[in-house]
Amino acid sequence: MREKLWIYGGLLLFLVGVTFPVWRDAITHATTQPPALEMPANQKQCVAPTDYMLTSHMKLLMDWRTSAVRDNNWKYTSFNGKVYQKRFSGTCLQCHSKAKFCDRCHTYVGARTPYCWNCHVDPALVKGATP
Amino acid sequence: MKPLVPLFVILAVIGLAYGGGQLADTRYLLGIVLPYAAIATFLLGFSYRVIRWAHSALPFHIPTTCGQQKTLPWIRSSWIENPHNKRGVLTRMALEILLFRSLFRNSRAQIEEGPRLLYTENKWLWLGALAFHWSLLVILLRHLRLFVEPVPRFVIGMDTIDGFLQIGAPQLLITDVVVVAALLYLLKRRFTDRRLRYISLYTDYFALFLLLGIVITGILMRYFFKVDLEGVKQLALGLVTFSPTLPAAVGPLFFVHLTLVSLLFAYFPYSKLMHMGGIFLSPTRNLANDSRRQRHVNPWNYPVKVHTYQEWEEEFHDKIKNSGLPLEKE
Ligand code: HEM
């Protein structure tokens, strides 16, 4: 009888653990509604097609960094012919807000807070400074 | 030949899921119906098997030991290798489950020139198994970020450690490298060791190929053919909050990953993978070696009709007395 208590207790613990997402989401009233991202007000188009940006913006950033820092190539010609400076804060964050755009989405999908901000600055925090 | 059939089965599933990930109807089937069916099978099947085990008889008291048993107070007993109480059993179980202690003692028998039988240490299986299982656990916990909102703090913390090499973006995760290396080693072991190849079954290969398929599609999705994680999270949250949502644009690779995962969960309770639950219920491990102090009664014992000496003496009391033989009672 005592063994049965251990076994059923263990099984119950396992089931409670496996269903953790179900009851945790019930407690926090999670919905499938993604967070509202603040889109640039006066702009229509990102530096690359939106589909690509949505999934692969981190790759673009890495390409920019490598070609800018290593090959001294600072100009990025976008798919629609516009030319951008390969600047992290200086380009992305001129249109986008870090806190209300990048961070909101990253928090939602649980992306590791990009360590880039250890060095690169959020222009919103240094009003008037040149990026 | 044995590995080929499971390989083709997995490849067929991958092909079907890849195709199915492109059509609206089959997306619903693969993205919502299949995961629910799979997780229900997993939970019910797992519980069923554990309950069946709980009710099976334990005819003998059979802990396996490899240390000095507790005897006289002045002989030092090894309380972990040969546990005599609950504390010892729990410690031994914990070490077995968390560190695979018995695999650490794995040895290998070889016939050398001579012929001479040689036993050597072989820790590779232990290392490979440990690396695989721990990586898998970390990966599963990491996936919580897709199912839980807000994301628990420990999941992010775990990933910061996992990605501390800071290679590339998205950051290279150490567990991703380790899990593939470990799975490939576990597979290679079955291919290259002749004796092991002989005893390997379809199911052994099936489990390995299935896990490799899941892990490789996951890695492809993370580093190479990116999918829209926001959409994936909507789908995943929809599943666990019972409000199924099918986001418009998630790549077909995600459906391959999800289908393989569903297959794994549905297959789990019927397969050798149930060792996850079984390890806790192994009588060779979870019993204390106290059979000299505590009587273990076999539940299968047939009620045998016995006639004891006392009863016999009583029956023939007068005859024994008359013949002058000694009586125990007097
Ligand atoms: C047995 C279960 C599973 C295993 C072993 C597994 C394994 C993996 C692995 C190794 C990766 C590579 C990236 C990483 O390590 O985080 C990955 C990524 C991924 N998995 Fe899974 N997975 C499982 C279940 C699931 C489920 C149920 C879902 C969906 C709801 C899912 C969705 C994803 C997604 C979207 C990615 C890409 C993550 C990214 O881009 O960062 N996985 N998986």
Secondary-structure blueprint:
The complex is a heterodimer of chains A (131) and B (330).
Chain A: H1 2-18, H2 20-28, H3 50-71, E1 75-77, E2 83-85, H4 88-95, H5 98-109
Antiparallel strand pairs in A: 1-2
Chain B: H1 4-20, H2 24-54, H3 86-99, H4 101-104, E1 107-112, E2 116-121, H5 124-142, H6 144-147, H7 153-162, H8 174-192, H9 194-199, H10 202-224, H11 229-240, H12 252-267, H13 275-278, H14 283-286, H15 309-315, H16 317-322
Antiparallel strand pairs in B: 1-2
Helix pairs in contact in B: 1-10, 1-12, 2-12, 5-8, 8-10, 10-12
Short description:
The complex is a heterodimer of chains A (131) and B (330). With 131 residues, chain A is mostly helical.
Q: Describe it for me?
A:
The complex is a heterodimer of chains A (131) and B (330). With 131 residues, chain A is mainly alpha-helical. Chain A has a domain at 50-125. In chain A, 52% of the residues lie in helices and 5% in strands. Chain A has five helices and two strands; from the N terminus they run αααββαα. Chain A has helices at 2-18, 20-28, 50-71, 88-95, 98-109; strands spanning 75-77, 83-85. Chain A has a two-stranded antiparallel sheet with strand order 1-2. In chain A, strand 1 and strand 2 (83-85) form a beta hairpin. The radius of gyration of chain A is 22 Å and the shape is elongated. The mean pLDDT of chain A is 87. Chain B is mainly α and 330 residues long. Chain B has a single domain (4-304), classed as Up-down Bundle (Fumarate Reductase Cytochrome B subunit). Chain B has helices at residues 4-20, 24-54, 86-99, 101-104, 124-142, 144-147, 153-162, 174-192, 194-199, 202-224, 229-240, 252-267, 275-278, 283-286, 309-315, 317-322, and strands spanning 107-112, 116-121. Chain B has a two-stranded antiparallel ribbon. In chain B, helix 1 (4-20) runs parallel beside helix 10 (202-224). The model of chain B has no long low-confidence stretch (mean pLDDT 92). The complex binds protoporphyrin IX containing FE. The site of protoporphyrin IX containing FE (HEM) has 25 residues of chain B, from helix 5, helix 8, helix 10, helix 11 and helix 12.
